[in-house]
Amino acid sequence: MAFAKEVRADLCVLAASVNRCWRDETMGLVAPMQELANDSWAMAHRPECDVLEAGSPCSGAGIAGRGNRGRLRPETRPEVRHPVVRALAQIA
Fold first, then answer.
1. Alpha helices (runs of H) in the chain, residue ranges in sequence order
2. Is 28 in contact with 2 (CB distance < 8 Å)?
3. pTM of the model
4. Beta-bridge mates of residue 4
5. In angstroms, rounded to a whole number, what is the distance separating the alpha carbons of residues 55 and 82?
6. Cα 67 to the center of its chain, rounded Å
7. What average pLDDT score do residues 14-34 get?
């Protein structure tokens, strides 16, 4: 795994400790997607990769996030919709 992006540092540390794909050279990027996409230093130093796997934020798509808000479609949460555009900008 070249890099992993999380919004909270504690979640990045947890992922590093339990994810078997995480290696010593894996870069943990901790920032909201909209900030990371606009951070020219981070984008210039982020490792390149051939495959990108991404998912919806847990706060909207996870069982607890959906249960707490009673929404069947997690993408209807305003704070979950905008990272998609930023993720596409990073891919480009």
1. 9-18, 33-37, 40-45, 58-61, 63-69, 78-91
2. no
3. 0.67
4. 28
5. 13
6. 21
7. 90
